[in-house]
Write a structure and sequence with these properties.
Layout: H1 2-6, H2 11-14, E1 31-35, E2 40-46, H3 58-66, E3 69-74, H4 81-92, H5 100-104, H6 106-118, H7 131-145, H8 154-165, E4 168-173, H9 175-183, H10 187-202, H11 204-216, H12 220-227, H13 235-256, E5 263-268, H14 278-284, E6 290-291
Parallel strand pairs: 2-5, 3-4, 3-5
Antiparallel strand pairs: 1-2, 1-6
Helix pairs in contact: 4-9, 6-10, 7-10, 11-12
């Protein structure tokens, strides 16, 4: 549960099905930049799970080297695993007189139970979980089954580099705020989140190569098509987890343009592509954003 609670949650929706692939010869990546009067801000679309053998593109390493400070969804450098686990349990467990089936209905519960069994998890383990935590548990198990590891993801690699180099890392959100996004979803949206996670897992093997290749070449159209496909069914889930957060982050990014330090901002890839993305909001605000 420690790793589960420490995850930047939206990657469980935005890019969960990524696996190893060779980096193609390309001029584009999931990396953008914009310039202030005295500095540069890089925007990196993250892959929160990778295999240990995966290499980050050279342009990511160059952007990291150029930046004096790093900003992530969470301050991953100072995240306390014990605190993360306690927060997840505090927000994610149901009262003793309620269970998952009563929260989501028999149909959704049966689908979640079938997925749990397929992943080697006894369904009864999920009974006390609120729907959002049950969803996160199933998605993480699916990722681990595919050989993907959060400790090998983009953020964790950057954290290791930053610690070695003495670079400051901060976060847009606290762990409580991020977990609270799901914990505070209405019952209908929590049920949708569980269903989305189960449905996404069912198609995971089909999407692996598509997603990883699109991410490595910065193919925004293909990424948008694959990553937003399921959200057409669940617009009320997409808005609070994606576009609303992008709007909150916009002002924080614009403030950095008056700074003298260069920044590398690392967020889930879906926050940087498509309608309502952080890139689109910046462009609408009159900023020139360049993809690398």
């Amino acid at each position: 549960m420690v790793r589960l609670a420490a995850l930047p949650i939206f990657f469980l929706l935005a890019g969960a099905n990524l696996a190893h692939a060779a980096e193609p010869n390309t001029e584009h990546h999931a990396l953008w930049s914009l310039h202030g009067r005295t500095n540069t801000i890089y925007l990196l679309g993250s892959v929160h799970f990778l295999r240990p053998s995966d290499e980050l593109p050279a342009v990511v390493k160059d952007a990291y080297a150029d930046a004096e400070k790093i900003i992530m969804e969470l301050d991953m450098d100072d995240l306390d695993p014990l605190e993360a686990q306690q927060s997840a349990m505090s927000l994610g467990l149901l009262p003793a007189d309620r269970d998952l089936q009563s929260e989501v209905g028999i149909d959704a519960y049966n689908k979640a139970s079938a997925q749990a069994k397929a992943l080697g998890l006894e369904p009864s383990v999920l009974n006390r979980f609120r729907p959002w935590l049950a969803a996160m548990t199933l998605v993480q198990l699916q990722l681990l089954k595919q050989g993907l590891d959060p400790s090998s993801g983009v953020e964790q690699r950057l954290v290791a580099w930053a610690r070695a180099d003495g670079k400051e890392i901060t976060g847009f959100e606290t762990l409580q705020e991020q977990l609270g996004l799901l914990a505070n979803l209405p019952a209908k949206e929590q049920r949708e989140f569980l269903l989305y996670s189960v449905e996404d897992a069912e198609h995971a093997s089909e999407e692996v190569e598509t997603l990883i290749s699109a991410w490595r070449v910065g193919d925004t159209r293909r990424l948008e098509r694959v990553l937003t496909d399921g959200f057409d069914k669940y617009p009320d889930l997409y808005r609070p987890l994606t576009t609303d957060r992008n709007k909150r982050w916009l002002g924080e990014v614009e403030k950095l343009l008056d700074d003298r330090d260069d920044y590398l901002i690392v967020v889930g890839t879906l926050h940087l592509i498509g309608k309502g993305s952080l890139v689109e909001l910046l462009e609408k605000g009159g900023h020139k954003v360049t993809q690398h």
